[in-house]
Amino acid sequence: MDAEAGLSDTRTLDDLTADGPPLPADRTLKPALPMGSVPLAGLPPLPLNETAADHVDLVLGRTLGEGGMGVVYLAHQQSLDREVVVKRVRTGARPRAAEALLHEARITGRLQHPNIVPIHALGLDADALPAMVMKRIEGTAWSELIRSGAEDVERHLAILGQVCLAVHYAHAQSVLHRDLKPENVMIGRFGEVYVVDWGVAVRLEPGSATTAIAGTPVYMAPEMTVSGAPIGPATDVYLLGGCLHEVL
User: Fold this and answer.
1) Using CB atoms within 10 A of its CB, is residue 135 exposed (0-12), middle (13-18) or buried (19+)?
2) CA–CA distance, 138 with 37 (Å, rounded to integer)
3) pLDDT string in tens for the chain (248-residue length)
């Protein structure tokens, strides 16, 4: 299994209630992002294409995953002769999709930690839409390991310890993940532990307030279920407790 990034649609509560049927318990609610001009000016062109050429560094390969707003590709980076992952906005997607990808790339890109997936580059594709280049992770979602029973409790606790290190670092950078769960933790082929999918993460600023409800319902802390309720590092700690509960 390749682990790159979340592809859940960005949806507001209005979108969800308009759909009629209630969401499944494990469906992720994404926050409403501010509409308006997407800050694309200043992003460099990203040299990528489906075929190799002198001016193309990233050659797109097979599709690894698709969502309503984004597509994730395996790609070959010719200059360094390595495989990477490219996530780009789906052609014809709503403007919010570009904003969501920019948000995810900029939040994740500033978090440089061994347990957080590195972002190599952010730029514009041939359609003038944002695309980001990430490290390729070959591994398995932690949730799959839990369900399979292939690992003992001690191993799962060691994984949780690595997740806690990543979250502690993010909090030191004033960033909350808000969607911590075993599904968003990837275990690499050689035991590496990565916290992924920072698409609903927020940066805490003095005097700022987070009004959008975001997260996965069965894990959400009480304060996450009320629009405008104050959240903080303890919110992520609650989610870590949910991971521990699932392991035990």
Assistant:
1) middle
2) 36
3) 454 444 443 333 333 333 333 334 444 444 444 434 446 667 888 888 777 666 788 999 999 988 778 899 999 999 999 999 999 988 777 778 888 899 899 999 999 999 999 999 999 888 888 899 999 999 999 999 999 988 899 999 999 999 999 999 999 999 999 999 999 999 999 999 999 999 899 988 765 556 578 888 999 999 888 877 788 999 999 999 999 999 99
Cβ pair 89, 101 in contact under 8 A:
yes
pTM, full prediction: 0.80
Please state, in angstroms and rounded to a whole number, the distance separating the CA atoms of residues 248 and 243.
Answer: 9
Question: CA 212 to CA 228: how far, in whole Å?
Answer: 7
Exposed, middle or buried, 64 (CB in 10 Å: 0-12/13-18/19+)? buried
Task: Collect all residues with Cβ–Cβ distance below 8 Å to 178 and sequence separation of at least 6.
Answer: 200, 201, 202, 214, 215, 224, 231, 235, 236, 239
Q: Which two tokens stand for residue 87?
A: 């996530």
Of these residues, 57, 125, 179, 236, which one is catalytic? Answer: 179
Does the annotation count 57 as an active-site position? no
